[in-house]
Amino acid sequence: MTKINYYDSKSILGKLKEGKFQNPKYFSLNYLANMLLLKGKREDLMIIEDLKGKITLFPHQVKTALIYLNEMNGRMLIADEVGLGKTIEAGMIMKELIAREEVKTVLILCPASLTLQWQEEMRDKFRLHFEVNKSVHNWAKCDKIIASIDTAKSPKHMQQIEAIQWDLLLIDEAHKLKNKKTKAYKAMAKIRAQNRLFLTATPMQNSLIELYNVIDLLDPGSLGTLSEFKRSYIADNKGLEIMNQESLNHKLKSIMKRDTRKDTGLDFTKRNVYTTLIEATNEENTLADLAIDFIQGQYQGMDEKKSQLKGVGTLQLMSLTRMLCSCRHAFANSLRRYVKKNELELGNQEKAKQILEINDKLPENNKFTTAIELVKKINEKVIIFTQFLDTQLALMDRLEKEGFKVDIIKGGMSTGEKSYSIKKLKRGKIDVLICTESGSEGLNLQFCHNLINYDLPWNPMRVEQRIGRIHRIGQEFDVNIYNLSVKGTIEEYILQRLYKKVDLFHMAIGEMADIITKVVDETSFEKTVFEMLMENRKKIDFKKKLDELFKKVKESKKFQEDVKAFDDKTLSLFDLSVVKK
């Protein structure tokens, strides 16, 4: 029998406990009335009560969900400005459709770097559990799947995907499908789905034709054929000038919505960025030089033929190099594990032994002392981010010795354990929460407005994600970001030459992905930096290569700024805001 969704579950349970039942005739009438109510126009969302306490909802988000359910015929392009919560809107729509039993099978496609983030967001905020494509072998056996567009378009996966009639297809960063001639576009066009939801802040790059292509993939034929669209709405050969604006506005409004910060009236707080550069001693510089020389030797000595083994070895060496910038304690522990796991030649064993002996003789890292003094100075709730578990545990131990109440969030913890740690900081039961990247995916920490980057990832997208944990829609206070970096390290060079030059710390959350993917694969920025270090043993050559990479990133940022300006200018001509309705 079909399951009935009631609005007032407590009342129903109360009647069951009291033994109060109506006869089958009234039950049937009540059932039919509920079904008619669910199929009619939705004035409210069933899921609002369930989301209370988990998410702060804003009027434009609720209205977006209602408009999708009532007016869009199962098709919508959400093109809100960056930072207004498109993921939340999509999650609300999805959960409401599932609650109403209109949707069971869901396929979310997004860039590879965002798959785990989507999984965490849907699980932690909406209690929707998705499989990520890496664990999926039979697509038909999973109701809810998240995959990268690149994975989905591959023939072996697409054969399974297109054989399924999906209830809902959600595509994030839909502007990546602006060109009908690409393999990705052609593959996505084969997917069958009753409901479709596309998300992007910039549906065009330099032509209205790109907007047409995205919408034609979302709802084929809704804007007519391409030749009809050009003839009716484009006044020039480049697709830049619009004609019949009112008519096009009417068509777009039936398939697309876009809210800006100005439309919503939401105030976004400021970011204050403070960087402390820590002087390294001569002994520490000697240690770093010896360690880099050892790592370069290990990298160049790996067997080229054993590609899989080399891949594992590269990750180990890259982790060692990054730890050197983070914490000597973490580096030493990791180096000991590396020596134990790998059969080193006698000369390399001696080098590793020498490095560890020098490390053990050095006094406490100045970075530790600086971090502790900074926590004292802030004198408020503070979140510290580090990339490494060894660093996290060492920091926790050192801070507790100074009298601070500290807890950690790390990979492998359950959702309940993470929530408990977050609640302790929120309620003032601890002073400091130390998080690793692997443990903090999807977490909303905006009740706190002080963040310390104890170490800095080499990939700017990782830094952006950290900031996004506390500086997001709904943050009430100006956010303070404190960066710690040791002078002369790779980390400091990336901080000074890239992060500051592209103004990373003031960019809107979500902007960096498009900038990076124009330069290198979105998941391999750190690997690119590491390989440059390994292949250029002279510092001057390494820095030259880095500067070439950074130049490309800056050029990509300029391109994205031009894209945003074009989208803002063009889309401002239309009335697509739900807030104004």
Fold and architecture overview:
There is one protein chain. The chain folds into 4 domains: 1-40, no CATH class; 51-266, 3-Layer(aba) Sandwich (Rossmann fold), CATH 3.40.50.10810; 271-277 and 365-510, Rossmann fold; 282-361, no CATH class. The protein is of the alpha/beta class and 581 residues long. Residues 1-11 have low confidence and may be disordered. Helix 16 (328-341) runs antiparallel to helix 17 (346-361), helix 16 runs antiparallel to helix 19 (389-401) and helix 23 packs parallel to helix 26 (539-571). Strands 3-4-2-5-6-1-7 form a 7-stranded parallel sheet. It is built from 26 helices and 13 strands. It is 52% helix and 12% strand.
Looking at the structure, what is the overall shape? Answer: globular
Secondary structure category: alpha/beta
**How far apart are the first and last residues' alpha carbons, in Å?**
40 Å
Give the CATH level 1 class of the largest domain: Alpha Beta
Spans of at least 5 consecutive residues with low confidence:
1-11
Give the C-alpha Rg: 27 Å
The count of strands amounts to: 13
CATH-defined fold name of the largest domain: Rossmann fold
What count of structural domains? Answer: 4
Lateral arrangement of strands in the main beta sheet: 3-4-2-5-6-1-7
Helicity, in percent?
A: 40-55%
